[in-house]
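Backbones bend. Shown next:

***
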Amino acid sequence: CFSSNNVSNAFVFMIANDGTFAIGKFVDGKYTGLKVWTESDAIYKNNYGTNTLVFEKTKGVCKFYINKKLVHTLTPDPFFDRLESRFGPYVEGKQTVAFTSMSVDKIEYH
């Protein structure tokens, strides 16, 4: 999740171990897809593979990277700016994940 108030009001950048990714938002708990599940060769599909996801918003454009490869860009909708600057992992379903690191490079408020 990124730019969230809580899990009911958040943007999500998701990957699956079948090599697909999606981008969406939750508004009052209702999900809307912004990028449907799309296959990408940037995703490491093997079990226990490590994938690095990066979200960057600069000059009004959101950029989404997987393992240093740009996979999607979009212009944020007005809902984006109403949310707080919280981020964190969101894991769904019966699966196990491990995080070796999580970081924020730079946050600027304008």
